[in-house]
Amino acid sequence: GAAERLKLWDLLTEDIAADPSFHVRAALARALTSKEAGHDDLLEKLAGDPSITVRCEALISRIRRGDAAAGMKALDDPHWRIRKAAAAGGGIEIASKAARDQDRRVRAAAIESLSPLSGEPSASLIRAALEDPDIGIRTAAVGALAERQDLPRLELLKACLARSGRREEVELREEIAEQAAKLPEATTLLHELLKDPAPSVRSKARRELVRRGGKVPAPETPSIDPSPFLDRTFRRAPVVILETEKGTIEIECLPS
Question: What CA–CA distance (Å, rounded) separates 133 from 176?
Answer without folding.
Answer: 16
